[in-house]
Amino acid sequence: AMADALWAARDEFDGFVVLHGTDTMAYTASALSFMLGGSFGKPVVLTGSQVPLGVLRSDGRDNLLTSLEIAMLRDAQGGPQVREVTVFFENRLFRGNRVYKHSARQFDAFHSPNYPELGRSGVELVLHRKRLWQPNLGEERRTGLNPNVAVATLTPGMTESALRAMLLGSRADGVVLQTLGSGNAPAWPWLADVLAEAHAAGVRVAHVSQCRAASPAPSNYASGKVIQAAGVWESGGMTLEAAVVKMMLVLALAPERQAQAWSASWAGERD
């Protein structure tokens, strides 16, 4: 609904600020970055507050005012300086599909461990222009969405039946595995068989690391190589939030297009 509303108004306004609750902001920012696509070509800044706006010490006022200023930034030709979906919070501007909510107690609620901040506000508002995403303005938006996606976290002591239930018993069309370290799992002798069953059943499986700051490099451990050999999709350093939403969009595509779509960077979300 948000993507549709923004798209419908794209020719009426120069930029957009979306006020959003913090708990699911990273999911929405990822979804909008993928669904609007490169052809939107205008700034979308998501922001909110840790303390409600009506409270004296609220961080909401500064977040809102600076977000409005970012949405209005123009280059020498009069075009927008920012052409992507971003999150602004506690003086820092981030790529929207690279953040996660780090804290429920601090004003700096969002972190972006695998991609540097796009800008910072202080006495001056500074943008790091070389870090900004340069969209393909001819790219069409994405509208199809299959929300039948589950998340399974691999932990020591997990049983074979538990993982099989998550991959197959849930009847999800796609599953995002939270693996260990750089894409590892405990050395379960049954892991390869369970992953093979899921693959044979047509379940699309991708993995992200439980480490928020994670390298996209392939694992050097035997258990990690089992995951790779089973055809589990690599995340390329995506956040869990971005991976979940991207899986929903990928599953709406024709089966023969899905693997390639997953490995592509749609809005600077990976690698």
Protein architecture, described:
The chain has 271 residues and is an alpha/beta fold. The protein is 29% helix and 16% strand. It contains 8 helices and 11 strands. The strands form 3 sheets. It has a 6-stranded mixed sheet, sandwiched between helices. It has a 3-stranded parallel sheet with strand order 9-10-11, with helices on both faces. Helix 2 links the parallel strand 1 (16-19) and strand 2. Helix 2 crosses helix 7. The model has no long low-confidence stretch (mean pLDDT 95).
Which helices and strands appear, and what pairs or packs with what?
Elements: H1 2-8, E1 16-19, H2 25-36, E2 44-47, H3 60-71, E3 85-89, E4 92-95, E5 100-101, E6 110-111, E7 119-121, E8 125-127, E9 149-153, H4 160-169, E10 174-179, H5 191-200, E11 204-209, H6 222-229, H7 240-250, H8 255-263
Descriptors:
about 270 residues; 6-stranded mixed sheet; alpha/beta; 11 strands; 8 helices; about 15% strand; 3-stranded parallel sheet
